Every structure is written in structure tokens, then in C-alpha cells.
Amino acid sequence: MRIATLGISHETNTFSKIPATYEEFEKKEIKRKSEIIKHFENSNYTISGYIEASKKYNFELVPLMYANTGPIGIITKDAYKRLSNEMLDMLKDQGPWDGVLIANHGAAVSEEFPDMDADFTKKVREIVGNEVPVGITFDMHANISKDTVENTNVCIVWRTCPHLDGKQRGFKCAELIVKSIKKEIVPTQFIETPPLLVNIVKQFTGQEPMKSLVDDCVEANLIEDVLDTSISEGYPYADVIEMGMSWITITNNNKKLAEKISKKLAKKAWQKREELNKPVPSIDESLKIAKEIYVGPKPKGIENHVPNDGRPLEETKESEYSHLGPVVLMDVGDNIGGGSTADSTHILKRAKELKINDYLQSICDPEVVNQCVSAGEGANISIKVGGKIDEMHGEPIEFQGTVIKIDDGKYEEHRPNHGGFRFFDDGKRVKFETDEGITILITSKRSGNTAREQMYSIGIKPENYKIVVAKGVSSPRPAYQPIAAKIILVNTPGVTTSDLSFFEYKNIRNNMFPFNKNTKYSA
Length: 523
What we know:
CATH superfamily of the largest domain: Response regulator
CATH class of the largest domain: Alpha Beta
Number of helices: 14
Helix content: 25-40%
Shape: globular
């Protein structure tokens, strides 16, 4: 049994000014053939689930090509053409196939195709024909269309945010494809897409309102003849008609049951539409709360602590952790995982003005990195850091301080982390200590804060700070919740701000809630 695997993974922020060129994919990740297995085998990503399934079910998993770049702007025509042509040619030339397993993100937009995932799955289907089972596993922030579901036999979505179950969900997708090949099941899908989005600040699946919606979805999976159920939160920074939440039910040859369950689950979410779109504190409010909460640092050795004693992060509450440790502020407007610039200075500016010390954050600024490298370790210099990519993320902030350490920015994380990735690369980077007592990790590449090893690998212990700023919403939680006294989401300006009135949407559905408060929906 030969099953091909391939994919283009991209979360497209259509409001970002940074285009997803072929070169951006090259800088991040383009893997071919055996490189794919070597890169993902020991990770917790979707493809690792495919690999594990191949061992259990004794099929040949044939890796073709996989491309990924961090969430930025629209994929250029050239990039999509070059990537998809090479992948699809491999699929065509190396067949025939018993099945296909795709590893896409699910929120990709190209210059030619607003629903790039639908176009990609359509072309895969055209190559392999209607008789070959095709499975796809999506990120929970996928904007999924009916076309994509129609082009595949099995469409599986991760169920956790932050994303900790990519491997398990990939395994489930592969398992269903194997059973389809063996004619043990006839997977029959139905997708329900109500005119509803969930604000990025309410997407953590370990707390309400999302927790019970995921629980309902998992419970429905136990119904007879149901093969799988998925809930997708959607990606609100994509100005496309598919944008929004969706529910997919897969049954064993029972279309009416699939439709009934998907609609029932969507209706429950509709009843929570106000909760799914509540605001979070401003910068000043968050800094005030943080100063009031902070008691002291975490005990020595906490960096080796396993989150929640091995239990899934989404099943725990923050109250289970000690009150000691830093207060972690989630910089929502500079969410790298959502397509932001990684160089926002909005919180940093206020921290400096309020004379807050024992404060830590990362910032992307290759110009300042080069300045520090030229000065050398130990040099005390003046820098103007951040706020250089666009006008949305603040202005450069001037500091006098010391270059503590310089390294190449590569590190490996074995702790639980969002997405299940293992290898990371900040580019050339610098640990910089300002004279005011602020620590800044200055990177050459846009880097999120999804792995604590990012800090440990350059000699920074985040558990010893009063305030740690993590660029993201849910993705830094697996890394930072174990050491945090509290996590506070902050409504900051930027290309991923939680204030969606900041953006001018032109292509989404006219009746979307919360943009249209009078929207009606009946499942």
C-alpha cells in the first residue's frame, strides 16, 4: 500500500504587507523526499502522525514535498505556481497511489486563489482520480470551504488551541484513509459554516467559551457510525468569504447523520456568539494588573517542569500553578503566529515610560542585531530598536545598554510547544540589557515565543522576571503557562489586534457576526 504525503502550509494574513514569496518559503522550510521524514519523525506535527500510522498499519508513506512559511501576507502567484507545480508533478510522476495524505494549514490565500487550499485539493484530486482516498489535516485556525471538503474523503482538524494534538489528529486522518483503502469504511463528510467568527482572544480551548464547544465536538464523536468530528475556530485576519468557524462531521456512509451533528454543534456555538467576542484589557490596564499581581520568581529548576504533570494543557486551570513567577502579557497585536511583524514596541514603550524593570521581551530587528555584532559582546551602546517594518506596530525605542551575548539563533525544543515543532531558528540574535533593567532578545528573523528554550539557549531565565511579554495569543501558553503567576491577554494595536474594527473587510460574508449584530442563523 503506497500513500503519498505533501503539503503547502500557510496562514495568510491578508492585511499584512509582507508578501509570501518563494524566497520566504525557502527561508523558513521547504523539505523534499526523505528530508520530510527526518525533520518531522520525532516532532508532534501532523506529518509525525502520518509516519506513526504508516508503522502501525504497515503502509509505505512516500514523502514528496512540504513547504511552510510563518504567517505573513498573501502568497504570490509565482510562489504558489512554483511550489504547487513541483509537488503535483511529483504526485503525477511517482504514482499510481493507493491514497494521499495532505498536510496544509487551511487558511492559505494566494494572489490567484483566495481559497488556495480548495485549489490545491482540487488539483490533487484531478491527478489521482475519484477512486483514490485523499485525506487532509488542518490547523484549528483553518478557514474551510465546502469545495475543500468535497475534494477530499477525510478532512480532520486539530482540536486544541494552543495546538498540542497535531500528531494525534494526523494519525487519525491516516487511519481513516487506510480503512477507506481497505473498503472497511465509506467516509461521508458534511461541513456547517455559520456566519460566525470567534475573536482571537477567546480561542484558548482550555477555557470557556471554547472549552465546552470542543467537549461537545469530542462527545459527538462517540455516536454510532460517526468516524470523526472537527471544530475549526477559523482565522479572522483573512479577508475571504470562507473566513469563520466551521464544523465537520465524518460518518460511515450516513450523510444525514453527518449533517445533523454538524448543524447541532454549530447552533450551540451560535448561542455563545457574544461570549466568543468579548474584549480584553488595554496596555496600561494590563501593566497595572501585572504590577499588582507579581510576588516573586519561580523556584530554581522550574525550567524542567512538565506542564500539568503530564496532563493535557487544555484540561487544567491557571489556578493550579503557584502564584510565584512572572506575569506573562500576551501581545495580541503582534502575534507572529497570526502574521505580525515581531517588532511591535507598544508595550515596551509604556514599560519604559513607567520605569518598569525586570521586564523581558523579544523583538525582531536585524539592523540592531548587526549594530550589536559590530560592537561586540560587553559593549555599552545606544540603540533604536523595533517599530521599523510598518506604521501599525509603534516607533523605534531608544535605549542605552550592554550587549550581553551574541549567537546564531538555532535551538531545539523537547518540551511541549504549540504546533509540536522541534527545530527553531531566530537568525543571528543578541541578548541586550538596557540600563533601565529591561532585557530584550533581539532577533534577525521573525520569531514567536512558542518555546522557552528560545530564552534558555541564550542564557535568559524568564521565570526570574517580573513581566514577560510573549508575542501571541494562545501559542505561547504551553511554553509559558508552567512558569507564569498569571497570563494576561493585552489588546494592543497591530496587524493582529483583537479590535477587528481596525480592519476594512471587503470580501467576507455580509451577515457575519459580530460585524452585523442583527445577523440571524438557524441550523
